[in-house]
Design brief:
The complex is a heterodimer of chains A (about 180) and B (about 725). Chain A has about 180 residues and is α+β, with helices and mostly antiparallel strands. Chain A folds into two domains: about 15-95, Ubiquitin-like (UB roll), CATH 3.10.20; about 100-170, [2Fe-2S]-binding domain (DNA polymerase, domain 1), CATH 1.10.150.120. In chain A, about 40% of the residues lie in helices and about 10% in strands. In chain A, a hairpin with a 2-residue loop joins strand 3 (about 65) and strand 4. In chain A, helix 3 packs across helix 6. With about 725 residues, chain B is α+β, with helices and mostly antiparallel strands. Chain B has three domains: about 5-205, 2-Layer Sandwich (Aldehyde Oxidoreductase, domain 4), CATH 3.30.365.10; about 225-290 and about 365-430, Aldehyde Oxidoreductase, domain 4 (2-Layer Sandwich); about 300-335 and about 435-730, Aldehyde oxidase/xanthine dehydrogenase, molybdopterin binding domain (Aldehyde Oxidoreductase, domain 4, 2-Layer Sandwich), CATH 3.30.365. Classes of the chains: A alpha+beta (about 180), B alpha+beta (about 725). At the A-B interface, helix 2, helix 3, helix 4, helix 5 and helix 6 of A face helix 4, helix 5 and helix 16 of B. The complex binds FE2/S2 (inorganic) cluster (2 copies). One FE2/S2 (inorganic) cluster (FES) binds near residues 60 and 63 of chain A.
């Protein structure tokens, strides 16, 4: 993690490059890409195309990723605002090579995706909820997920998948405890 | 036409190393394709034969004939192959061909996939199975009757199991059985206890979608690729009046401006610089014709049209009596709606030179890759064999992805720059260019006798064109098609009543509206069913007859499957009673889509005066589309359609501003969200003896009238203008 002091010193000594951590790996953004949004850098510069573009105005949530643990809309996040932060994308969600993340698995078990375009954003938003609220009520799910659009209308299954993943996470934390 | 024979296709791709393929039947796919309009080479009984292969390891490979946009049709077809060959659907390897790897296959639209492709695929797989059986018999020197099916092969009494791998060698063999008899099709045998068909198979490729794999056209990355955008005029055919790009040179990342007549394209090194450059280009357009809501309303006004006499097109006309004693006489207005698929369209184009011959590769998500190929060749002056389209998954289609559009942007910019170009439309581009579902204006009159038996039916309406709307066909062809095609069947979709009436007239007027219109989920099926089902409900209520009883009484025997859906949905709805408080209501509606798909929907809702909202609490649906190949995916389509019906009934409307479409993103075109979704009770009526029909746009037709009818039940108000707002209820003074 880059400290505030380091960031200030970077500014003073005019360090040319901008760094951030993406899915646990330190990455450098250079030149013309420093003027881009996080979405553009992820997709076109790093080739992490799992984060999708839906509206470009922060209105649909297809581009949701986590910055320092909070879900944000990468399409309206200038990359130079988040130097030094940790970014988590759908590609980095799965911790274990053998096993999908409980949310991804629940998405498959409930057969959620239709066209599938919105679901990177849906899953990242859902993780924003479950990583803090292990046992959400239906009401909490509705409120937290309401801003992530799915034109195919898979909402009912999204809700079921979140509840299913919550149970799995609960069980695994019981085992670990 | 490119000279792609099945043999050269087999050689050119990794499709076969050895094993058995069924011979490609040249006869099955027409050599000559239509140069304008969609690709119409739909399969006949022989066509599926080129799509299947058993390899020397005994594994079955299938070439997917359908474009994927969420309907998972290829999974359903793979289930059929699995059923016929006694294997598991997950053991089949799927291949998605480019336009150079196979002959043209009809465009993916209109929920035709299962209807038109299930049988050819079943025939191919069953023929493959029977050929393998003959081989087993020959090797063992016994008669074919003694070779019994088992999973992945056969058994013969007293011998070890024979797997398909034991029957196939490295030598490549093509089976040609064009003239042979069709073997038993397990899929269509109602007595058979099925193992694959009718099961809830997991959609193929689902893991890619939850892990963010590159499956959409915008995900394509090529070395040296630049980012392009064509500046879209507010309406098609606008003329460039003023263009000034003097300031763009200084913007970091700017690469080039491509100009050709009214075509203005920008190429940059990053997507962000593209946004900046496009913003700083000063551009003015001369519009061919002003558009505003008022003008459209005037053009569509059904009463003005009726005052001039009979409407130009008649769908049904028997014993019509215009001065009948009408019990109800209602006017309806259905709004302009758009697809708003989640993925704004994108394409990547790259021109390469091989042996001095230029070839263009285009990656795009389209319902009709072969049309893209033809149009691209024509557009950039290439021969068709110089164009290869790589179809990618679509982030939603809904009828909105049939034309050569974003591909044109990418192809032209790639040609102009000589570099690989990615064009990602913005959401604003998508709104501007979409070919929307036409608004329509209806007048519907009904009369019945004292018992509730329909006596007179008169439905008159005006709608913009659907198939023959502006710029869907070339200008030289359009007037000809409009005058000779015998009516635009997009306009008339859904207007045939499912009820019987001794006197009936259904007439309509197609209007040339100055906005871009086209194909949208169900065509006019949803608007017309909304009108019919609302009016039927109103008549029942005015006669104090229960609306479900009233409809059942008027459904003819030939529509028994419809009546069955309605009864079924009523039973499901009645499992929960409606709160007796005021402001709660329940409504029903039913409908037939394209003759063979039947549906009924019920809606429970309440009016929340505090939140100033119409809240849908519960929707039930019973649907009968014949054989249910994958019930889970049928259910998924129903869920999707019900969500769309909420959007249609209560939210969606493309706003028209001064001279152009004003809705341009999700803040001024509202679509349903998670909190809008009620609890859903869905029942699939499986009819294994009936050939499967379309399911992708069925429940939508009954959903929105069921909502309007529930509002009527809750408030006493008959609301006839879509979308219905909370303020419509308060304006009309409901209690
Ligand atoms: S693409 Fe970022 S919110 Fe829609
Ligand atoms: S699955 Fe298509 S937009 Fe959500």
């Amino acid at each position: 993690m880059v400290s505030l002091l380091e960031r200030i010193s970077d500014l003073i000594f005019n360090k040319p490059n901008m760094n951030l951590f993406v899915n646990g790996t330190e990455r450098v953004v250079t030149g013309v890409w420093e003027e881009e949004t996080l979405l553009s850098v992820l997709r076109e510069y790093f080739g992490l195309i799992g984060t999708r573009f839906g509206c470009g105005k922060g209105l649909c949530g297809s581009c949701t990723v986590h910055v320092d643990g909070e879900p944000v809309r990468s399409c309206i996040t200038p990359i130079n605002n988040i130097a030094g932060t940790s970014v988590l994308t759908i590609e980095g969600l799965q911790q274990d090579n053998e096993k999908l993340h409980p949310l991804q698995q629940a998405w498959i078990d409930e057969r959620v995706p239709q066209c599938g375009y919105c679901h990177s954003g849906q899953i990242m938003q859902a993780w924003g909820l479950l990583s803090k609220t292990r046992n959400p009520t239906e009401e909490q799910i509705n409120t937290f997920m309401d801003s992530i659009l799915c034109r195919c209308g898979t909402y009912d299954r999204i809700k079921k998948a979140i509840l299913r993943a919550a149970v799995i996470l609960q069980q695994s934390s019981d085992i670990n405890a | 036409m490119p000279d792609v024979s099945r043999r050269s296709f087999l050689k050119a791709t990794a499709w076969i190393a050895g094993g058995i393929t069924i011979a490609f039947s040249a006869r099955s796919i027409k050599e000559k394709s239509v140069s304008v309009g969609p690709t119409l080479e739909f399969p006949n009984a022989d066509s599926g034969k080129g799509w299947l292969q058993v390899r020397p390891d005994g594994k079955v490979h299938m070439l997917c004939p359908r474009m994927e946009m969420g309907q998972n049709a290829n999974t359903g077809l793979a289930q059929i192959v699995a059923e016929e060959l006694n294997i598991r659907v997950q053991d089949i390897t799927l291949h998605y061909p480019t336009t150079s790897e196979t002959a043209p296959i009809g465009f993916t639209a209109g929920s035709l996939s299962m209807m038109l492709f299930s049988k050819p695929v079943a025939i191919a797989a069953a023929s493959m199975r029977e050929n393998l059986r003959c081989r087993a018999a020959k090797i063992n020197k016994i008669s074919v009757d003694e070779v019994i099916d088992t999973e992945g092969g056969f058994v013969i009494l007293g011998s070890p199991r024979i797997g398909y791998q034991d029957l196939v060698t490295d030598e490549s063999i093509e089976l040609d059985f064009e003239n042979s008899v069709i073997p038993t099709l397990y899929t269509f045998d109602p007595r058979r206890i099925k193992k694959q068909v009718g099961q809830e198979a997991e959609p193929r490729g689902i893991k890619d979608l939850v892990t963010g794999a590159p499956v959409f056209s915008g995900d394509i990355q090529l070395p040296g690729m630049l980012y392009g955008r064509v500046i879209k005029p507010p309406v098609r055919k606008a003329r460039l009046k003023k263009l000034n790009f003097s300031t763009v040179q200084n913007i970091i990342g700017f690469f080039d401006i491509v100009r050709d007549g009214d075509f203005v394209g920008v190429v940059c090194r990053t997507p962000g610089s593209l946004d900046k450059v496009v913003r700083s280009v000063i551009i003015e357009w001369e519009l061919p014709e002003p558009i505003n809501q008022e003008k459209i309303n005037q053009l569509l006004d059904i009463n003005v049209a009726l005052q001039r006499g009979d409407l130009p097109s008649t769908l049904q006309d028997e014993n019509h009596n215009p001065i009948a004693n009408w019990d109800v006489d209602l006017e309806f207005a259905v709004q302009l709606q758009t697809h708003a698929m989640q993925e704004p369209r994108a394409a990547v184009a790259h021109i390469e030179k091989i042996n001095d011959i230029e070839r263009i590769n285009i990656w795009t998500g389209t319902q009709d890759p072969w049309a893209i190929k033809r149009h691209c060749a024509d557009d950039i002056g290439f021969r068709e064999d110089q164009v290869e389209v790589h179809p990618m998954r679509m982030g939603g289609g809904f009828g909105g992805r049939e034309h050569y559009e974003v591909e044109q942007d990418a192809a032209r910019l790639a040609l102009a720059t000589g570099l690989p170009i990615k064009v990602q439309w913005t959401r604003e581009d998508e709104f501007r260019v979409a070919r929307n579902r036409s608004p329509s204006s209806h007048r519907m009159r009904l009369a019945c006798d004292h018992k509730g038996v329909l006596s007179n039916w008169w439905h008159a309406y005006a709608s913009g064109y659907v198939f023959y709307s502006r710029s869907r066909l070339p200008d030289w062809l359009l007037p000809f098609k409009r005058s000779t095609a015998g009516g635009d069947f997009g306009v008339s979709r859904g207007a045939h009543p499912a009820y019987k009436s001794p006197s009936i007239r259904v007439e309509y007027k197609e209007v040339d509206l100055p906005i871009d219109l086209g194909v949208w989920r169900s065509l006019n099926g949803a608007p017309n069913t909304f009108v019919i089902e609302s009016t039927m409900d109103e008549l029942a209520r005015q006669k104090s007859i229960d609306p479900v009883r009233f409809k059942l009484m008027n459904i003819p025997d030939s529509m028994a499957r419809l009546g069955n859906c309605l009864k079924r949905v009523e039973t499901i709805a009645n499992r929960k009673s409606l709160p007796t408080k005021s402001g709660y209501g329940r409504g029903f509606a039913c409908g037939v889509y394209e003759k063979n798909s039947f549906v009924a929907v019920s809606v429970d809702l309440h009016i929340d005066h505090e939140a100033r909202k119409i809240c849908i609490d519960r929707m039930c649906c019973a649907q009968d589309v014949g054989m249910a190949i994958n019930p889970d995916q049928l259910r998924a389509q129903i869920e999707s359609n019900l969500v769309w019906s909420i959007g249609m009934a209560l939210m969606e409307k493309v706003e028209i501003g001064d001279g152009q479409i004003a809705s341009n993103n999700f803040h001024n075109y509202m679509i349903p969200r998670m909190s809008d979704i009620p609890s859903l009770d869905i029942d699939i009526i499986d009819n294994p003896a009936i050939h499967p029909s379309g399911a992708g746009e069925v429940a939508l037709i009954a959903g929105s009238p069921a909502i309007a009818n529930a509002i009527r039940d809750a408030t006493g108000l008959r609301l006839t203008r879509l979308p219905i707002k909370y303020t419509d209820i308060t304006a009309l003074g409901s209690l």
